[in-house]
Structure formats: C-alpha cells, structure tokens
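hey can u check if this looks right to u? its 173 residues, i copy pasted from the old doc so theres a chance i mangled smth
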Amino acid sequence: MRHSTRDLMNIAYESAKDNFGNTSFNFAALWAKTWSVAKEFRKDSIENWIGAFYTELLIDPRFVYVGNQQWRLREFMDYNEYLKEIGKRAQDVQLKEPESAEGEAKEKVEVKKRGRGRKSALPEPTDTIATVVEAQEKDTQPIETEEVNLDEDMVIPASTRPQESEDDEDNYE
C-alpha cells in the first residue's frame, strides 16, 4: 500500500484532537505524536516525510497557525477568534504598488553604490552614452525585406518521396 501525505495529515489531525484539543501546540510536539501513531509509515525514514508534512500542515484548513510557532485546531476556535488570527496573517502580507516597489529597488541600488565606502567598479552612467544611442537610432533606416516562400524553392527528388499506396488513402464511400 502506498502512503500519502494526506493520510499522514489525517493521522496528525486525529492525534492533535486526542492529545491537544483546545490548547495550542508546536510543530515538534505534533510531529512526535503523529509519528508515534503512524505505524504504517515507519517503514520509510522520517526524513522522507517531515518536509512534505510541514508543507501540508501550512495549507490544511483544519490547522491554524496562531503565531510564535504555535498551532491550533480550527474546530476548537470560535469564528471570531479564527477571523482575528487569519486577519493578522492577511495584514502581514501587504501588496505593494508597482511604482513604489520600483522606487524602492532604485533606492536600494543607489544605497549599494554608495555602500561601504568603496568605489564602484562600474562607471557612472552619463548622458553622453544616451545621446549617442539616440543619434544612432535616428540615423538608422529600416531595411526593406523581400518576402520569401521557402516551399517554392524546395525540390524533393522522387526517390526520397514516400510512396503512397491505396491503403494509405482514406476511403469515404
């Protein structure tokens, strides 16, 4: 029988419900309780399961991360408490406007250049380079191209063509 991470999560949920109930718990305690119950998984090594187990724990809606490396079971939380915890997590992740993110990136580059008192190995950009590029763009005219049909120029000798037989043709009678 092939074991899945989902099976291990079901064992973890039952184990957490039996051992922790309404109290919060950390990952190490949950893992220890789960692994002690998961007898069928013992054939494999712990290293094969712990990473996938933690990833599943993060996305399983039955478990709620309450901060400070603590988890709780969703079924033992009232709705307002759950929304409060989820709200905290949503506030931690704030979307930035593309303009502000770009501005911050430019500031970081400038700080890096000023950095540790060392001179940059790259020369500072100058307006003369931009002027030369603009002049080259103005002087360049697009080249007129001739449309070429490659199929017209191809000649396939009769000896290399595949022979068609009556069996190859579709018969629509």
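The helical segments are 5-19, 27-37, 47-59, 79-92, 98-114, 127-139, 150-153.
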